[in-house]
Amino acid sequence: MLITKRGAWWEVLHSWWLLLTFVPFALTSFFAFFYIGYRAKNKHWLKYGLIYFIILAIAYFLPSKPGVYIVLPLWVITIVHGLKVRAAYLIQLDVFKQRVEARAFEAVRHEAESRFGGKPAQHIDLTKHR
Fold first, then answer.
1. Membrane-crossing residues (predicted)?
2. Which of 8, 76, 94, 124 has the fewest CB atoms within 10 Å, measured from its CB?
3. With a threshold of 0.90, does the pTM exceed it?
């Protein structure tokens, strides 16, 4: 099922960060949320990345048994959370990229208009031979 109009391949390429949540014991899950938060300019996902990092750090400083009781549920939670926010991330990234592309298009258009004095360029017939 496609989430954006950019196609399945684009969505798969921009979902690589989900692999970070599947690394054993949630060792890199917080990186996934930092990444999507940064890319989509979403502060909530950045906060989740920080929360997951703090929980992971605390769990690794605890003795092994209590630490495992924290890390294993954290690992499952980050996987489920990542799968849940994937669609929202792809939509937000799509909208962000559309804005960037539109701004770049407008900048090129503005430059062309200023270069040609706001008038369309003269028609040049490329089919004529000299």
1. 16-38, 45-62, 68-89
2. 124
3. no
Rounded distance between C-alpha atoms, residue 108 and residue 100, angstroms: 12
Q: In sequence order, which residues have a C-beta less than 8 Å from that of residue 6 and are 6 or more positions away?
A: 94
Extract the tokens encoding 116. 């040609």
How many CA atoms within 13 Å lie on the side-chain side of 86? 20
| Structure tokens belonging to residue 124 | 């040049």
- Please check whether residue 14 is in contact with residue 4, taking contact to mean a CB–CB distance below 8 angstroms: no
- C-beta of residue 49 within 8 angstroms of C-beta of residue 33: yes
Cα gap 41→21, rounded to integer Å: 20
